[in-house]
Design a protein that fits this description.
alpha+beta, SH3 type barrels, five-stranded antiparallel sheet, 16% helix, elongated, disordered C terminus
Length: 85
């Protein structure tokens, strides 16, 4: 099963190849994420991340609902969204 996890964008910048990358906060877990599919994303927006790539936007409310569900399932501490290669 594939899972996209919401997170809040905290940093946006191109890497040495010109690909838009950023840091995303997943409820306290910070990961580097490829933002190439959402090049106009802004700091503070929430995105859905799958295997290290931001693939869509969500509202803060939707993101908080997912975090609450993950907490209830005891899965938030095991968050691992992967890293882009």
């Amino acid at each position: 099963m594939c899972l996209g996890v919401p997170g809040r964008v905290t940093q946006v910048e191109p890497n040495t190849l010109g690909v838009t990358m950023g840091r995303v906060d997943f409820g306290g877990v910070i990961k580097e994420v490829c933002l190439a599919y959402l090049p106009d994303v802004k700091i503070g927006e929430y995105v859905i991340v799958h295997v290290g790539f931001a693939i869509g936007r969500v509202s803060e409310r939707e993101a908080m609902e997912v975090f609450q569900t993950l907490r209830e399932l005891g899965e938030l501490g095991e968050l691992d969204v992967g890293q882009p290669e």
